[in-house]
């Protein structure tokens, strides 16, 4: 953590007062589970907080940047910017992957380079930064790390297959589209979700992913491609 502290101070002018909080932000559930007797906290609660402040800062940025955009267009842009893959990219750019505390099994299975874990760590760091320094510092950090890349389009452009499927199916009117998890496999820290997508109660696609969101996108992609 000392190296991380030095990096944050040198590159971003950030010096954490609560060092255990910073450590928690980079602690994956797999590490906490392997050290239960030490009662180590993991970063899921901070991730929840970080997601909220990230949504706020990006929403404020879009509102100011595009004064003539309707709510729907801003929502689409925001969802693209804060996608798991995009956040993982920003996490790598900050070098956060080097400071993750992972369980041995997660480490061996390539967890240090997994988008889900890296994206979650980025949000957890924002949550810790919010608690330690306040919203203004979080915004300043994002305007150094994230916003300049968004301005020039350097973020992970991943097709939103759920939106594409909705637009494809509802061209002639409303159709009830829903997603359902039909299976969960793997240990708690490395689950794989299997999802089906239905249209008017008929299964039209199926997919798997390491999060429910990714599995839903995979199922939607399967449905879109089946109609291609």
Automatic annotation (TrEMBL):
Enzyme Commission number(s): 3.1.26.3
Alphabetized InterPro entries for the sequence: dsRBD_dom, RNase_III, RNase_III_dom, RNase_III_sf
Reaction(s) catalysed (UniProt annotation)? Endonucleolytic cleavage to 5'-phosphomonoester
Pfam families according to UniProt: dsrm, Ribonucleas_3_3
**Entry keyword annotation includes ATP-binding:** no
Question: Which SMART domains does the UniProt record give?
Answer: DSRM, RIBOc
Say yes or no: keyword Hydrolase present.
yes
Query: Which residues are in coiled coils?
Result: none
Chief subcellular location equals cytoplasm
Keyword annotations for this protein, in alphabetical order, are:
Cytoplasm, Endonuclease, Hydrolase, Magnesium, Metal-binding, mRNA processing, Nuclease, RNA-binding, rRNA processing, rRNA-binding, tRNA processing
Q: Where is the RNase III domain?
A: 1-134
Q: Which GO terms describe its molecular function?
A: ribonuclease III activity
List, alphabetically, the PROSITE patterns matched. Answer: DS_RBD (PS50137), RNASE_3_1 (PS00517), RNASE_3_2 (PS50142)
Requisite cofactors: Mg(2+)
Q: Which residues form the active site?
A: 51, 123
Detail which positions bind Mg(2+): 47, 120, 123
Domain DRBM per the UniProt entry, residue ranges: 160-228
| Localization in the cell | Cytoplasm
Query: Entry's HAMAP family?
Result: RNase_III
Family label: Belongs to the ribonuclease III family.
Q: Which proteins does it associate with, and in what oligomeric form? A: Homodimer.
As for what it does, the entry says: Digests double-stranded RNA. Involved in the processing of primary rRNA transcript to yield the immediate precursors to the large and small rRNAs (23S and 16S). Processes some mRNAs, and tRNAs when they are encoded in the rRNA operon. Processes pre-crRNA and tracrRNA of type II CRISPR loci if present in the organism.
Provide the protein name.
Ribonuclease 3
Question: Which organism is the protein's source?
Answer: Streptococcus oriscaviae
Taxonomically, what lineage is the organism?
Bacteria, Bacillati, Bacillota, Bacilli, Lactobacillales
Q: Which gene encodes it?
A: rnc
């Amino acid at each position: 953590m000392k190296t991380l502290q030095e990096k944050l101070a040198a590159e971003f002018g950030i010096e954490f007062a609560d060092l255990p909080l910073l450590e928690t932000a980079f602690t994956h559930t797999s590490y906490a589970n392997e050290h239960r007797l030490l009662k180590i906290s993991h970063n899921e609660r901070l991730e929840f907080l970080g997601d909220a402040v990230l949504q706020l800062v990006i929403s404020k940025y879009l509102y100011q940047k595009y004064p003539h955009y309707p709510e729907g267009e801003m929502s689409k842009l925001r969802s693209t910017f804060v996608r798991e893959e995009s956040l993982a990219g920003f996490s790598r750019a900050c070098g956060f992957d080097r400071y993750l505390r992972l369980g041995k099994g997660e480490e061996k299975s390539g967890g240090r380079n997994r988008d889900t874990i890296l994206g979650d760590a980025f949000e957890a760091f924002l949550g810790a930064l919010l608690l330690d320094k306040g919203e203004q510092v979080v915004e300043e950090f994002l305007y150094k790390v994230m916003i300049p890349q968004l301005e020039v389009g350097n973020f992970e452009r991943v097709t939103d297959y759920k939106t594409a499927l909705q637009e494809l199916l509802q061209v002639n009117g409303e159709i009830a589209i829903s997603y359902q998890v039909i299976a969960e496999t793997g240990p708690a820290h490395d689950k794989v979700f299997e999802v089906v997508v239905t249209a008017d109660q008929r299964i039209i696609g199926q997919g798997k992913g390491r999060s429910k969101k990714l599995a839903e996108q995979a199922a939607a992609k399967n449905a879109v491609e089946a109609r291609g």
